[in-house]
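Task: complex structure prediction.
Instruction: return structure tokens for all chains below.
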Amino acid sequence: MQYETKRRSILKAVSWRTWATMTTAAIVYMFTGRFTLAITIGCLEVFAKMGLYFFHERLWHRLRYGKKEIPAFVVWFTGLPASGKKAIGDAVYRQLQQENLRVERLDSRDVRPLFPKTGFSPDQVDAHIKRAGHLVAMLEKNGVIVVASFVSPYRSSRRFARQMARNFVEVHLNSCVEACEGRDTQGHYARARRGEYRYFPGVHVDYEAPQSPEISIDVDSLTTEQAAQQVVDYLKKEVMSGKPRTAAAQKPATAAATRNHLQPGSTS
Amino acid sequence: MQYETKRRSILKAVSWRTWATMTTAAIVYMFTGRFTLAITIGCLEVFAKMGLYFFHERLWHRLRYGKKEIPAFVVWFTGLPASGKKAIGDAVYRQLQQENLRVERLDSRDVRPLFPKTGFSPDQVDAHIKRAGHLVAMLEKNGVIVVASFVSPYRSSRRFARQMARNFVEVHLNSCVEACEGRDTQGHYARARRGEYRYFPGVHVDYEAPQSPEISIDVDSLTTEQAAQQVVDYLKKEVMSGKPRTAAAQKPATAAATRNHLQPGSTS
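Output:
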């Protein structure tokens, strides 16, 4: 959906002509030793070639050859409550934005208000994560990079999100319950311990840590910026370079089938 | 997120040189009448300028000047059940796809399975349409054109979707209940009349026709292809050309505020 304006082609023609005519005049002078001839030929060339360059640019503008897209991907942060998903996700999002990439940020806190009746029972959390999986896959399919952060405590729902996406990078923010509880400035753990919440990961239900995430970050020993840098470095090296990853190659064939089944209008 | 490969720059350099050197040689011959000199200068130029052209291309590749995006938009089909939303929407989607545009298709039938507990009471339909509004706006914000088709019988929920989007094109498929019932091969109207459905638009609840849609189509007198063509013609003339539309200019200022409020991570 990107296009180049005629004004860009005109400016390129002028810029090219400045350099090219000086080269031509120099060559003519070298061979003939006649300064006036070199200048005359250079001047005539300016007009003839500037027009030619413009039309050459417009012709190439119609050709898609050699115009490539940086493949989109999903960065999925998972970890205990207060393990730093929101902060590190925000930092990664900002860095990707600065690269002029098309990128969307999805945090559980932004998505839940859209489904106000979604609770926190294992079934409801599973449905919530699967919906998020559909959403990130739809964005990714359309060339949008997604930085997602959800506690997503259950392996099965994270596996679903991975299968929906084409290029899924799971980032596990590794920390123990005690450290997260110590970091929790909003008092969620305290409320969970007082029984105001049920099913709180780390308190009432197990957080099922990923077995083979693409990235595992030891959040207790890193600052937010250091952790974000680790993620961005991985993305630049392993994902944005466009070279195939092992994990992607091992992706089960059912992923595409699931996507096609649920979005019949958008398969082609 | 688009980039140009080095191979494209090399091919452009060769293509340009073919035309440009022939021009130079012709000019030199015109002025000197010396055929050999013209050919010699032409040959030397080939090598000097091909390299120059390549580096000139790579330099311009770094400049974003004059590279523009076709603005994304939302085409929202609304109309009674069996008024042709799915078929006409699919036809418009296919035509836009053929233009190499980034386009997503969202039909009510594809979205409802994601929220299996959403019923058809006015409140639930309103919530359903508002969720769809969030979804289309998120896609549009990221440069994706969306072709959406929902009965969306209530004005207030359609207004919400319009306010979420930046560039909203409402297409009303205009037809009476009798004509739609006659077209309904799936027997939905019959089931509604037998009382198997409640809140069926056109039978139990009013379908609130749009008061000022961007496009109103008299579906009873047009084929699916003709109707789709009307929509595509409007889009090309009024939306994809990039010129400001009156409706967009009149958009209430609250639209941006609502979006920012709900997606705090993606405002910039």
